[in-house]
Amino acid sequence: MTIIRWRTQPQWERMIDFALQNQKHTTTSEPSNYGRMPRTNIRKTSGNYQIEMALPGVSKELIRIKAEKDILTISFVPKPQANEADQDSQETYLMREFSPEPFSRSFRLPENCDVENISARHENGILVMSVPFEDPEKHKLFRTIEVN
User: Fold this and answer.
1) Which of 9, 60, 114, 146 could pair with 132 as two cysteines, CB 3.0-4.6 Å apart?
2) DSSP string covering 35-100
3) pTM (two decimals)
């Protein structure tokens, strides 16, 4: 007996529907997570976590980093383009293949992170954040107790 999986909708139609559902065009200044998320590397070194995020073409003045309890949030909201803000402008795009997309990305931090001493720098299109932490093994005291 052959079992045939029945699909009510062809695969390519489902892919198109999925793509269209995930495109959210907003006119507000709030970032939407439906755009392209920046690529991120997270490394653990001795004494801190290094978070590297690729943000080419993004001005460091427009990057917002917020640490609240155990959540680290990095966001970017681009300034409106000149011809988007001014409808009477004589300048229009004939072709536009890229534009800055807003985003907001959050990371849950471990309990041993020192939120007060998080540092960040932006060099050559890479945002590098250093999140210091205390090694929990450092404070554990091991003691062998002899049973009498």
Assistant:
1) 114
2) SPPPPEEEEEETTEEEEEEE-TT--GGGEEEEEETTEEEEEE-PPPPHHHH-TT-S---S------
3) 0.63
What residue has token string 């495109």?
Answer: 23
Distance CA 113, CA 126 (A): 22
Separation of alpha carbons 50 and 128, rounded Å: 7
| Helix %, strand %, coil % of the chain (to 5) | 15, 30, 55
Alpha carbons 68 and 24: distance in angstroms, whole number: 27
Q: Please state, for a pLDDT cut of 90, what percent of the chain lies above it.
A: 32
- Give the pLDDT band of residue 100 (cuts 50, 70, 90): confident
Residue type, 4: I
Q: In degrees rounded to 5, what are phi and psi of residue 105? A: -135, 135
Q: How many CB atoms lie within 10 A of CB 28?
A: 8
| Tokens read off for 15 | 């892919």
Domain assignments of the chain as residue spans, ordered by start? 32-81+94-137
Domain 32-81+94-137: CATH class, spelled out: mainly beta
